[in-house]
Each structure stands twice: as C-alpha cells, then as structure tokens.
Design goal:
The complex is a heterodimer of chains A (100) and B (155). Helix content of chain A is 59%, strand content 24%. Chain A is of the alpha+beta class and 100 residues long. Chain A has one domain: Winged helix-like DNA-binding domain superfamily/Winged helix DNA-binding domain (Arc Repressor Mutant, subunit A). Chain A has a three-stranded antiparallel beta sheet with strand order 2-4-3. In chain B, helix 2 runs antiparallel to helix 5. The chains are: A alpha+beta (100), B mainly alpha (155).
C-alpha cells in the first residue's frame, strides 16, 4: 500500500457531497443543498459550519419575498482542497487496483 | 486535517468517487437554465440594440438594462442554484470576451451608421441578429449543462 493523505474535513460523506454538489455551481441555496443531501437543517448547518471554519465555504444572506435565505459557495481554497482530495481518491483507487 | 490513506481501501475510495460523480451531476442538473431564461435575455439584449433605431433612444435604453438586471436576478433567486460564469477552461472566458468585443464593435458601428446615413433599420437588424446569437448561445450552454448532468440532450 502507498501512503498519502486525504483531507479529513472533506472526506466525511456529507461534506464530500456538499463540496461535490457546489463544484459546478457559483452558489446554491441552503434548502436546495438540504434537499439534495437528504439531511435535516441542523445536520447540514453543522457540516457547513465545519467547512466554513476550514475556509472552504462562504455564505451570502439575502431576502426573497420577505424570507431570509442563505446561499453557500465554495471558496478558491475549497475548490483547490476538493480537487486535491479527488485526485488522491482517484490515485488510491487506481494504485490499489493495479496492485491486485 | 489530513487523514492517512492506509485507512482507506480501494472500495471506499471508489465509493467516494461515485458519490462525488453523482453529486456533481446533481449540481449541473440544478443549474440547467430554463429555455425561457435564454429567450428572455435574448429579447432584452436585442431590444437594447434595436432602441438605437429611435431618433433619441437615451430616455428608453435604461428600461432593457434594468429589465435585464431584474430578470437575471429573479431567475437565479428562483432556481436556488446557478452555474459558474465560465465553467471549464480559460478558453471559454476568452471566447466570451472575444464575442463581447465583436458585439461592442457591431453595436457602435450600427450607431455610427444610424447617425451618419440616417438608416434607421440598421440597429433593428443588428438587434435581431444579436438577439438570435444570444439565444443560440444560451441553447448551447443549456445543452452543455444537460450533458454534464447526465441527461444527454435538451428536452
């Protein structure tokens, strides 16, 4: 086996899905993220908070029809970290496959 | 922050990659612009160009500009997610910049012709062509989004 590193902040399944979903997007609304992930508001908030603390996600608040809405987007460092994480996963899948 | 990959076997890595692929497709699917969006933007931009057929267009050109800003903002807010402005390579951004420069040259050219030769139909024709170009470009983008989302071709 080869030794390398994965980003623990991103590798958790829900956070991995959040980053993957946000990758092709400029921004996504909180409710859209929640529906796509199929998790509760509190679970999504917890994961977004962890990504924000790592500097991978930023937020924008806005009102639509008098209702407060929150939009999330990947930061530049978030995109770089996610890209590196995907490369590492691809390498692991490929290397271990070739070792068989 | 980093995790030793010896803890991650091939199956787990492949599972994560599959999950990433599915979610990226979901993101693209959410960002697919509606056909009416492209048509609306095309009509508003075409009207901005065509208004220069008037003797004094300046009191009116503010309307398509404001309309465009409101239309794009409303469509984005309604969709709940929207794609990056220049997805893919830097080449896409260069193509968009080149097209914008050409459109500006055509735009000012039509104004000069209108004023110099008093040919009112030139801005109308230019506006129609630009509107058609914008709509076709939006359809191209829409198809690209549908392909990336795994939905293949436009509905």
């Amino acid at each position: 086996m080869t030794k390398a590193s994965l980003n623990a902040v991103i590798h958790a399944p829900n956070r991995l899905q959040i980053c993957a979903f946000l990758t092709p997007l400029q921004e996504a609304e909180f409710q859209v993220l929640r529906d796509e992930l199929g998790v509760s508001d509190s679970v999504l908030s917890k994961h977004l908070k962890q990504l924000e603390e790592a500097g991978y996600v930023s937020f924008r608040k806005g009102a639509v029809n008098g209702r407060q809405r929150m939009w999330a987007s990947l930061t530049k460092s978030g995109r770089q970290a996610f890209s590196g994480h995907v490369e590492e996963l691809t390498r692991i899948a490929g290397v271990l496959d070739s070792e068989r | 922050m980093m995790r030793d990959t010896e803890d991650v076997n091939r199956g787990e890595a492949q599972e994560s990659l599959d999950s990433i692929k599915n979610m990226e497709r979901a993101g693209w699917r959410r960002a697919v612009p509606h056909r009416w969006f492209g048509l609306g933007v095309a009509v508003l931009i075409a009207s901005l160009f065509a208004l220069y057929a008037l003797e004094d267009p300046y009191p009116y050109i503010v309307f398509p500009i404001i309309g465009l800003a409101i239309f794009i903002t409303a469509a984005r807010e309604k969709s709940g997610a929207y794609g990056r402005d220049f997805p893919g390579t830097k080449a896409n951004a260069w193509v968009v910049a080149l097209v914008a420069v050409i459109l500006l040259i055509v735009f000012f050219g039509s104004i000069v012709i209108r004023r110099t030769y008093d040919v009112a139909w030139v801005p109308l024709v230019v506006g129609s062509l630009v509107g058609l170009f914008v709509f076709l470009a939006s359809e191209h983008e829409r198809r690209a989004y549908l392909t990336m989302s795994g939905q293949g071709r436009a509905k």
